[in-house]
Amino acid sequence: AFEAVELAPPDVIFEITAAYDADQSTNKVNLGVGAYRDDSGKPWVLPVVKKADAILRDDKSLDHEYLPIAGLPSFTEASARLAFGGDSVAIKEHRIASLQSISGTGANHLGALFMSKFYKDGKTPCYLSNPTWANHKQIWNNVSVPLFDYPYFHTKTRGLDIDGLLSAMESAADGSIFLLHGCAHNPTGVDPTQDQWVKIADVMERKRHFPFLDVAYQGFASGDLDKDGWAIQYFVERGFELIVCQSYAKNFGLYGERVGCFHFVSKNAETAKKIKSQIEILQRSEISNPPAYGARIVSTVLNDKALFNEWYLESYAFEFRYRCQNLREMSHRIIDMRQKLFNHFQKLGTPGTWNHITDQIGMFSFTGLNGLQVKKLRAEFHIYMTQNGRISMAGLNSSNVEYFAKAVDQVIRE
Ligand code: PMP
Q1: By alpha-carbon position, which residue is closest to atom 2 of ligand 1?
Q2: Which keywords are on file for this protein (predicted)?
């Protein structure tokens, strides 16, 4: 009965990693996967995560019982404070339904599933940025919500196509769903400025569109939680009902532990309570209850002042300036790589403009390299990236950034 099932193509990112692993060259560079690497190209377990892990291992009161359906309360509460700010009025008014999720992907799925079941007739279209994280399409297709694109990336300026974006919002039917990347847009690394966010919010409010914010890089992008969380907090202050999908894969380096949080901000506490009760039923039918370990790690850090400071320090107080802050170590290494790459292009006189490398933020950069150039980089230089010219900045380090710049310089001149 299943002979007609077609063979699906392999996942693009995982295919790149497999090809990279099989490559015998000592010069090989993997710029495909969006996972942090330290300056020696190795995965990095955050020191603060190691400390939290040791605390948990010593805690004799812990067991392997199920968590509640909505997850670990100390985790979901701390997650809400992180996303919405400690003084958030929405938190104080109990207007937020928060549920622990299977990382950011699970939060996106839970949100899409909820919208398909409870937003109008379930057929209200969702608009995705062009381009976007490839999984967004699959997630929304799985719940049969009609999808449209909105313009996002301006190929000429390699910046935001704000006019295209705003006019798509204008012409969409009232009350459409708009999926927005809260910070560090994947794959482009291009974010709206605060002024542009204001314009986006103005149109969305007038058109009564629903903001669905995917936030996979808070703190990881700039090293500043408030800066990266600005759009979320601004939309909440403006009084929108909205969804926020949070991932701790990048900012805690907990990729494989699948730690995330889903939030629905509603108009009042009563609605939030009802919404939470429905999403709990959805959660129950899919995963019963979320995994405990990663949430305990994050909760341990976020709820302890000293550990929180080690992960991230808000004030730039002098006495802390030279202490290791894990979030900033990652974000600043990436920012430093952007600068170094830009400097190499300058020095080489590589044709074209390269300021987008330092203007873009977060894990990824949309280089502007075309498909043919990407193929040549792989075949001739053992450099791996997606066909659209996106590179993961985390794959660059002091030992390979010059090699990469020279290779790009060469294929551009060919
Ligand atoms: N959304 C976006 C835009 C992402 O880039 C990612 C990570 N690649 C995610 C969500 C979620 O990833 P995870 O499920 O690993 O948290």
Answers
A1: 216
A2: Aminotransferase, Pyridoxal phosphate, Transferase
